[in-house]
Amino acid sequence: MLKIKNITVNYLKAPFGIQGEIQLGWAMESDRRNVTQRSYEIEISENRDFSKLVYESGVVSSAASAHVVVDIAWKDICKYYVRVRVSDGQEISDWKESYFITAYQKQESWHGTFISAETQEERNESGATLIRREFSVKKEVAAAYFVGTAHGLYRAYLNGAKIGEDEFRPGWTSYHKRLLYQIYDVSCRIRPGKNVVGVMLGAGWYKGEMGFEHDRNHYGTRTAFGGQIVLDYTDGTREVIASDTEWKGAKAPIVFSEIYDGEIYDAGLEQPGWKLADFDDSAWKKTEIVSRDLMTLYPQQGKGVQKITKLSPAAVFETPKGETVIDFGQNLTGWCAFTLENAVAGDVVELKCFEVLDAEGNVYTENLRKAKQTIRYICRGGGAAYHPHFTYQGFRYVQVVRFPEPVRADRFQAYAVHSYMEETGSFQCSNELLNRLQHNILWGMKGNFLDVPTDCPQRDERVGWTGDAQIFSSTATFLMNTYAFFDKWIQDVAADQREDGAVPHVVPDILTGKCENNWLCSQGCEGASAWADAAIIIPWNLYRAYGDRRILMQQYDSMKKWIEFMTDHSEEGCLFRYALQFGDWVALDAEEGSYFGATPTVLTSAAFYCEMTRIFSEIADILGRKSDHERYEALYEELKESFRKHFIHEDGTLTAQTQTAYIVALYFDLVPEKLRARAALELKKLLDKENGHLVTGFIGTPYFTHALSRNGYLREAYELLLKEDFPSWLYSVKMGATTIWEHWDGLKPDGSMWSADMNSFNHYAYGSVGDWMYRVIGGLEIDEKHPGYEHFYIQPQIGGGLTWAETVYESIHGTIRIRWEHKEDYVMLKVEIPVNTDADMILFGAGRMLEADGLEFTKTEHDLRARVGSGVWTVKYIA
Ligand code: BGC
Predict the structure, then answer these.
(1) Do residues 822 and 429 make contact, with C-beta atoms less than 8 angstroms apart?
(2) 600-649 pLDDT, tens digit each
(3) How close is the Cα of 775 to the center of ligand 1, in Å?
(4) Annotated catalytic residue: which of 258, 263, 716, 742?
């Protein structure tokens, strides 16, 4: 039977916030093999029974099941129902239905003014405020929506219940240029007669303390809410209750809430019933208007940050020093929640969140730098349940400094809080340590995708370091559907990019002009190779994984400006020299006490300049921008030549004898074909010199295993990945890591630690080796000519003593599964290929085919290969 499994709108299931043209896609299933779509039919309607159609495609003879554009004029804030059916020439599927909700199609349609319950004098405070408005519903409601945003962070309630599951709204963007608003369907919460909308506002990233110098008020001095309730009546009329100074304000029981430092909540200040009708708000004051350029409001597409995973304590124990500590068994980002049964008014709960114990097993908070990560709760009396609101902590452990009742495990819970993204990938194999590493990579992602891709979630940093995001983006995009997340963030990259094309080190950029005293930014806060390159690498990775050209078009000017910036600041061809370059950041071959690896930054920067130009010239080609394509292709050839001239000797050795130098030169294909073998041999020698260990940092690490396996050193690549002693990925696993560390030697073999000023235990960058695990061990490789897995390669490279591996990826076309088992005398490979896609199966080193499952294999010098259509296939061959 032919079935549509799911429909996506702009790569999301049933999204809210649609503006302008949409891209529809659908994944299909069939119990037959080799199924391809012949035609599709789409209908979009304003009502559920599809009697008010606004769009009908008719039967379209086409194989397209992704990126199908519908561009019609949508109504503002309206739910549309969409259904699709398809035919493969033999069968017609049933209709599959979904829906989406539109945003305002033009910024001008926005109604609410921005209102604040704070005064200018409160600029240095971070207590929360409350805002409320009663309204009455006199007619029958067909649909109701809440549309809102804020300066600061907000949580909204309708008739006592929280609206939507999102937290930390409106998220963090380059607020002056782009502020996102959210839309929630509240139809089932509206009732006849009196209704109340309530909003709680916190300082958040907008006016709270952020950055190296702990500055506050980065974007403004007062929190404010702007929004409206939209009521559609059954008589066809629409009423909008927009924010204005009729809305009243008061102080919230949150007397302090800061991203780094935590929250203080005085339950004695609660005003029971404030979210409900008939609450006496006569003591509340009028709100005041705060200015806001409404033209900079944009809809949030898709879901926001949510409570995703709930964990119970693994243990509650006392440290040698006598501290009471809860261990959640997992380093995470989010909240510690607790319940009280019968506290006395004025009793205090105090919790300190932290990542690791020191060598003696005591509480260790030094690596948090100045971030306090402390929660204080003052009881009102009686029972209570609490979790923080406008702050988050990076922690595995919680020190219970004060708790008025017995500290029992069942009173505490941890919530991992991050941007909601569907999990799309998984990897498992016969090596338990590798599976554990995989788990740590996933948790590194969960820990640092809180609205923006952050470097770390615990110390006083937690900012969108572009380099870290770029390094991890392809691994992330395997693990979860990152499309909406990165699409949002990459628009901020462009928004914060300087006029001259320089891309800031962190996005949203809160560092420029604010950290002259910090050595890292003393020469400026922009323009670092491999960091700024996020502007190109991330859209490119999204294009590869989702096949989406729109993202390339959207980011085109930003990418081009960055290439031009590098060109403007280069000499003798590829030598890009601009301000401070981080280079192979925190590599182990750095001089004692230094963060800068031994590979000259002029080499790494030149390599990235070459590679970015290559990618950009390809993008220009994909988008049909012929003259740009020709221009940048020619520039790339020049740069490559120049790189060779400056850094590669005639015998294939490099001017810098470091692992990272060889890795980038090989991985970015900068070594002439005839010298590759020699360069690869040199890399192997440098690896041997370290006894098979890496000494690489942010630049070399992500590509190390690829540089080896692509150049005839698969065995060495496996050995590198499987090393268990220091320094290695599995070293941290064996040391009990549950996330990815910032430093290979975050925790040294003797129990001592790396300098506390830069020692995060939740830094996803080195988790980028995940990319190699899915692509090489798993064997799932994108075909750039048919991106989005429309056609792909299945080419596992078996090794490392693994007896099996299973890689599953939920592509936009459906489930891809690759499982191989290495038996004593043969290999079994079982694959699942989605309907309307096909793959080339390439069996490296395969000798004789034992069972071909009807596939026609051809033999080449190094492999057996066959074209495989959709369905489940199992082959057996002698390796
Ligand atoms: C961050 C890194 C970042 C680096 C820039 C650090 O403070 O935590 O991950 O990329 O600075 O070199």
Answers:
(1) no
(2) 999 999 999 999 999 999 999 999 999 999 999 999 999 999 999 999 99
(3) 27
(4) 742
